[in-house]
Structure formats: structure tokens, C-alpha cells
Amino acid sequence: MKRLIVGITGASAGVYAIRLLEVLAEHEAIEVHLTISASGARALSEELQIEIDLNNFELESLIGVSSPRVIYHHESDIAAPIASGSFRTEGMIVVPCSMGSIASIAGGISRNLIQRAADVCIKERRKLVLVPRETPLSSIHLENMLKLSHIGVCVLPAMPGFYHFPKNVDDLLNFVVTKILDQFGIDTKLIQRWKE
């Protein structure tokens, strides 16, 4: 079974994280280790009117179903398995990834479990996919993302394509989720691929 870490931070577009978790929760060959920052929970509340309790988290409150393959870790739990390089995973996805989180990860600062797990992925040379959703981008944002790209981090902005002729918002979400999961070789058949 593949293990993936998913972190949700306080950027706009938590809807991408929700769609990603919906897809992964259905995938029987993947175990998800989920952590959410307090800012991430606040953004989900403000944007989507989704209320989650980080201290007594239930997956159903986020995606409407439960799954034994989605394991939650509180952002302050520095003893969580995903805080250690000896806990083997395929890597990590931070979606949406705030510019503050990108800055912390680029600077090697681990103030919460999301940042620590990202740091572990970098030091262990595991796949790390950061999905920022910010516009416009400042020079500081671009420099931080370039620094991370230079060390092998995949910066995958939440920029849906239109060549698959999307008909609704779900089609746009599925495009970005497909791009994210392609980084881990996980095919979901969510979209019609170019010329396939």
C-alpha cells in the first residue's frame, strides 16, 4: 500500500484539497496521512462554510464520508509518524499551499507538522508537491518557489487547463487533482487527456 501525506494550509481554494481527499479516500491501495493547519481550518470555514474540529477531527466533516485509510494528525503533534524520515511514504502534497508555508519550507523552518513533514520529504529526497493558489505573485514568492524547485520540489500552481473542454467547476478541480496525482503515478481517469 502506498502512503501519501496531505497537508492543508490557509491559502484560498481548499476545494482542491477536498476533491483530492475524496479521490484518495476511494483508492484502496493508498493510505493518506492528513494534517491541517489552524489557518487551513479557518480558510475552509470562511470559503466553504465547512467547520472542522482540529482537536476531534472526523473526515466526514470534511468530505462527507469516513475512511480507515485516511489517518489524521494534529498540526502540533511533532511525534506523529510523518515527522520522521524513518516513516516511509511516497511523498507529500500541500494543497492549497499558502505563501507563508512556502516561505517556511524554503527556509527550513518547521513551526508545525505540515512544515516538518515537508522538511522530512526534502531531506529524504521524497516527492514534495506544493500547490499554491495566489495571484499576483511577488518577487519574494517567486524566489521562494524557485529555491524549492532547484532542490527538486514540484511547484504545481492550481491553474486548471481548458483543452479538455470543462463544462463545470468540477471539471476544473479534476484537472488540477489529476496533475497532482500524476506526480505520484496515480491515474484516476478523472479527465479526458490530450489526444487520448
Q: What is this structure, in a nutshell?
A:
The protein is α/β, with parallel strands linked by helices and 196 residues long. Helices cover 37% and strands 16% of the residues.
Please provide a written account of the structure:
- By secondary structure, this protein is an alpha/beta fold.
- Helix content is 37%, strand content 16%.
- The protein has helices at residues 14-26, 38-48, 60-63, 99-106, 113-123, 139-150, 169-182; strands at 2-8, 30-36, 70-72, 91-97, 127-132, 154-155.
- The chain has a 6-stranded parallel beta sheet, sandwiched between helices.
- α1 (14-26) links the parallel β1 and β2.
- α4 (99-106) crosses α6 (139-150).
- It is globular and about 45 Å long.
How would you describe this structure in keywords?
alpha/beta, Rossmann fold, six-stranded parallel sheet, 6 strands
The CATH homologous superfamily corresponds to Flavin prenyltransferase-like
**What share of the residues does DSSP label as strand, in percent?**
15-25%
Main pleated sheet: 6 strands, parallel
Low-confidence stretches: none
CATH topology group: Rossmann fold
Strand numbers in spatial order across the main sheet:
3-2-1-4-5-6
Counted up, domains total 1
CATH C-level class is Alpha Beta
Shape: globular
| Computed Rg | 16 Å
Which percent bin holds the helix content?
25-40%
Assign the structural class, choosing from mainly alpha, mainly beta, alpha/beta, alpha+beta, or little secondary structure: alpha/beta
Helical stretch tally: 7
CATH-defined architecture: 3-Layer(aba) Sandwich
Secondary-structure element order, N to C: EHEHHEEHHEHEH
